[in-house]
Specification:
Blueprint lengths: L6 H9 L3 H4 L8 E17 L6 E3 L21 E2 L2 E2 H10 L3 E4 L23 E2 L7 E2 L5 H11 L2 E6 L6 H12 L5 H8 L10 E4 L12 H12 L11 E8 L3 H11 L10 E9 L9 H28 L6 E10 L4 H7 L8 H16 L4 E7 L9 E4 L2 E4 L1 H9 L6 E7 L8 E7 L2 E8 L4 E10 L3 E10 L18 E3 L1 E5 L1 E6 L3 E9 L1
Parallel strand pairs: 1-19, 2-5, 2-13, 5-8, 8-9, 9-10, 10-11, 11-12, 12-13
Antiparallel strand pairs: 1-16, 3-4, 6-7, 14-15, 16-17, 17-18, 18-24, 19-23, 20-21, 20-22, 20-24, 22-23
Bound molecules: alpha-L-arabinofuranose (AHR).
Alpha-L-arabinofuranose binds next to loops.
Length: 519
């Protein structure tokens, strides 16, 4: 619980009885540097769509099976088959949107395998992630059920690579047609009389790679054919998302749109999704300072990619009717085979450095809010940059979860123009937003050896106190483990906010969000 402080309370607090609460574990051995930044409360960038804080869950390793779904008869405490601890943590954080079933898995998934009585569902080999078999006990009904339980908007990635237009079109009808067609009656017989009303539909995934190894021209032709049949049913107009590039690849984007519009411009496309991973030079808990610098610097590249991809899209779509999405993003460290064997494919630990990466990414998205529709970090549980790690009945909340928690006050806020000194990718990162009479500022200090005393001048608003939370650890490889689950956790932090000035201290490797009162 955040502690609300008045200006006077703040000054007293630092020396008073609550000081221990407010002062973070400080790295006093480091140099302290004074820096300044600015927030222009009167220059609005655009609304921060909560979907910029979205998530992704694939049939991969132990993300779905074990991480989210254990089945009703499991000894792991569950609610109708969903892990109780995962449901509780994800509901508390709020998952605005959840993408499923892949990833690469999506283009080898046939939705009919995952409906009907569980015992009758076929067992299939997961060819992308280790050739193990899945019993399909988690399918469309379970996915939508999960979304309803945690309050997430469902986003289904359809199969373009190995599926047919008919299969994808039927999935939309099965989910969204109100009743009276064979498919919608089948849905009702399978337990859901009410339509699911799924709005978000991905038309393939990474079709330049695992989704069919296509050229942008080939993909554009398939895309055009598939979406011809993906219709509005029962008032739910599907938001159709095309596969975008791997990182900032301009040739895919130019090639795709040129081909898509070669004959006519009336092709249904609502979103265009880029994937952007930040690669790690070592395994998660063995990062050197250099590994960390390299990975965290990639977020400058992410911001550049958003600007450049949007600019290319603007050439084809000057009115910005098509939304830019970052469907998959996050840190992808060197994987440890023994850990993957124990916990599942693409399992990686999650450290304070991962949390900094999450906060750097979210700050980028806030700053570019008017160019983006949705961003989904990969992946929710037990895979890559996870929010939760599970081991049988144990569940650990990762530093990345806490980074999302700290950035949550920005959801639905109006993003504001910020300024900082210098343009180093490892300089202080800032994003700010205004909601009603509150100003939220998130600051990240990615440096491992510098304490920052930051003065933020706020133009266009007068402030009167506020509260702050910090996530910080002096050890870049610190993480939460099953045996020590609370090594990296947020705490209250001291902030001074009066008139047009905010003063806050950022220890090395820290994220601070201040929520300030606008007088
Ligand atoms: O997130 C893991 C994998 O990364 C996804 O399946 C794929 O889309 C991407 O290459």
């Amino acid at each position: 619980m955040s502690k609300r402080l008045s200006r006077r309370g703040l000054l007293r607090g630092a020396a008073g009885a609550s000081a221990a609460l407010l002062i973070p574990r400080r790295a006093t051995a480091y140099a302290t540097v004074r820096e300044s930044a600015a927030v222009n409360a009167d220059i609005e960038i655009g609304k921060i769509n909560p979907y910029l804080h979205g998530h992704f869950a694939e049939h991969l390793g132990t993300c779905i099976y074990e991480g989210l779904w254990v089945g009703k008869n499991s000894p792991v405490p569950n609610v109708e088959g969903f892990r109780r601890d995962a449901i509780e943590h994800l509901s508390r954080l709020g998952i605005p949107v959840l993408r499923w079933p892949g990833g690469c898995f999506a283009d080898d998934y046939h939705w009919r395998d995952g409906i009907g009585p569980t015992g009758d569902r076929p067992s299939r080999v997961n060819i992308h992630w280790g050739n193990y078999t899945e019993d399909n006990s988690f399918g469309t009904h379970e996915f939508v059920g999960l979304c309803r339980k945690i309050g997430a908007e469902p986003y289904i990635a359809g199969n373009l690579g190995s599926g047919t237009p008919q299969e994808m079109r039927d999935w939309v009808e099965y989910c969204n047609y109100p009743g009276g067609s064979t498919l919608s009656d089948e849905r009702a017989a399978n337990g859901s009389k009410d339509p699911f009303g799924v709005v978000y539909w991905g038309v393939g995934n990474e079709n330049w790679g695992c989704g069919g190894n296509m050229t942008p021209q080939e993909y554009a032709s398939h895309y055009r054919r598939f979406v011809t049949y993906m219709r509005t049913f029962g008032g739910t107009r599907p938001y159709l998302i095309a596969c975008g590039p791997s990182s900032n690849d301009p040739s895919w984007t130019r090639g795709f749109f040129t081909k898509l519009y070669e004959r006519q411009r009336r092709v249904r496309i609502d979103g265009y999704a880029m994937h952007f991973y930040s690669w790690g030079g070592d395994s998660s808990t063995k990062f050197t300072v250099e590994n960390m610098r390299e990975q965290l610097s990639s977020f400058a590249g992410l911001e550049e990619a958003i600007l450049q991809q949007r600019a290319i899209m603007d050439g084809f779509d000057p009115e910005r009717r098509i939304g830019l999405l970052i469907d998959e993003w996050g840190v992808w460290d060197r994987l440890v085979p023994e850990e993957e064997k124990q916990y599942g494919r693409l399992w990686q630990q999650n450290t304070i450095r991962s949390a900094l990466a999450a906060a750097l990414g979210l700050n980028v998205f806030h700053r570019q809010a008017e160019k983006l529709h949705m961003c989904n970090i990969a992946q929710t549980v037990n895979v890559l940059q996870a929010l939760l790690l599970t081991d049988r009945d144990r569940c650990v909340v990762t530093p990345t979860y806490y980074a999302y928690e700290l950035e949550k006050p920005h959801r639905d806020g109006m993003s504001l123009r910020t300024e900082r000194t210098g343009d180093s990718p490892l300089g202080v990162s800032i994003s700010a937003s205004r909601k009603d009479n509150k100003l939220a500022i998130t600051l990240v200090n990615p440096k491992h050896n510098t304490n920052l005393e930051l003065s933020v001048s706020v133009r266009g608003a007068k402030l009167d106190g506020g509260t702050a939370r910090i996530l910080h650890h002096a050890d870049r490889n610190a993480c939460n483990t099953f045996d020590a689950p609370s090594e990296v956790t947020p705490a209250d932090h001291s902030v001074e906010a009066a008139g047009s000035m905010v003063k806050v201290e950022l220890p090395p490797l820290s994220i601070v969000t201040a929520v300030l009162e606008i007088a």
